[in-house]
Q: What sequence folds into this?
């Protein structure tokens, strides 16, 4: 016996109302019944067909033509409505009232996922770091959806607008210029604001420059720490590198072309020369280059060819070598004390706290301070 759609409201006719929206909804309901009678075996047992969930979308956007056939289904815990158009045409679906965080290509436009494309086609608005940049991606895939600028200078204001739109029942996508929003790109404050307002945030996994570089680095370290961009000022950058030095993990940095030479020089100065560095530039783009070498040779490699200093960079530095008699916790304590005390005092106090050799701690403190 074919499964029957179960209404989730007592009075569907009153819910759908009158006018064009009401008439369209009635036709949709009839089509859904016919589909379930014919294809009931494909339905998920005990699934409820909540045609009322479609109604706000129908009433809200009259400009989107509604096909005559609708199927209620449960997909990954979310109720959606697949709307097949003419035979062979792309399937469209009513989407959940939510913020969709969509990862986009970091270079090669072919790296976007099918789910990302379906989502970008289905939302009412795409919030993006740069509307011109996003428009290139959308136009490339024939996606005609309005865009809204959301960048580091207007994120609070733009996030408030997205919350208002979600409150009106809209579906919104969030993208950055490249990669995953919120990872060294705007988006984190927007996601926090949307969650605080009680709306769902749905992430779509995809490209990330950090993960792409790690996958091609060939490092055997058991863990990694994503640092992102180091401070631009020399003093602050060196302080940050010293604090990262004892961490038992590969370190992943982003860097701009006009600072990459200085950053690599600081890394070579403050970290152990035994550590390797992977310099990955222009990932997935025409001039992609990935080179691995001892950290001490990296500055010479950059200087050997002007092209080596061009593009967007991911730098991956291998974890520190094992150090006899000085564990990671002792180094962490020493680094913290060095930020406030002279070398001799920091080493003495670190020895009292950790029980490690004062001489070993003093020698390490000299290394961290650059001699």
A:
């Amino acid at each position: 016996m074919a499964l029957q759609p179960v209404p989730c409201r007592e009075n569907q006719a009153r819910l759908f109302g009158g006018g064009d929206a009401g008439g369209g909804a009635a036709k949709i309901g009839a089509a859904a019944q016919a589909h379930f009678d014919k294809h009931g075996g494909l339905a998920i047992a005990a699934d409820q067909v909540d045609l009322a969930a479609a109604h706000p979308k129908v009433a809200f956007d009259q400009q989107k033509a509604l096909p005559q056939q609708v199927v209620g289904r449960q997909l990954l815990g979310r109720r959606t409505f697949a709307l097949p158009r003419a035979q062979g045409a792309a399937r469209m679906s009513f989407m959940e009232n939510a913020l969709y965080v969509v990862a986009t290509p970091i270079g090669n436009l072919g790296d976007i996922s099918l789910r990302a494309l379906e989502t970008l086609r289905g939302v009412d608005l795409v919030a993006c770091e740069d509307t011109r940049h996003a428009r290139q991606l959308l136009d490339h895939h024939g996606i005609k959806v309005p865009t809204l600028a959301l960048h580091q200078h207007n994120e609070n204001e733009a996030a408030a607008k997205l919350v208002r739109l979600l409150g009106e029942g809209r579906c919104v996508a969030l993208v950055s210029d490249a990669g995953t929003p919120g990872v060294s790109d705007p988006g984190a404050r927007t996601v926090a604001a949307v969650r605080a307002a009680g709306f769902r945030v749905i992430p779509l996994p995809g490209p990330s420059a950090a993960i792409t570089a790690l996958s091609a680095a060939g490092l055997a370290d058991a863990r990694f720490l994503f640092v992102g961009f180091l401070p631009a000022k020399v003093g602050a950058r060196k302080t940050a590198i010293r604090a990262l030095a004892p961490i038992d993990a590969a370190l992943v940095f982003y860097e701009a072309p006009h600072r990459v030479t200085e950053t690599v020089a600081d890394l070579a100065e403050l970290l152990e020369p035994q550590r390797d560095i992977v310099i990955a530039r222009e990932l997935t783009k025409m001039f992609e280059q990935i080179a691995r070498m001892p950290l001490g040779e990296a500055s010479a490699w950059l200087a050997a060819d002007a092209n080596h200093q061009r593009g967007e960079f991911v730098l991956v530095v291998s974890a520190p070598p094992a150090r006899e008699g000085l564990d990671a916790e002792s180094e962490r304590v020493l680094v913290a004390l060095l930020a406030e005390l002279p070398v001799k005092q920091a080493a003495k106090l670190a020895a009292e706290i950790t029980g490690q050799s004062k001489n070993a701690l003093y020698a390490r403190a000299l290394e961290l301070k650059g001699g």
Notes: The chain has 14 helices and 13 strands. The radius of gyration is 28 Å.
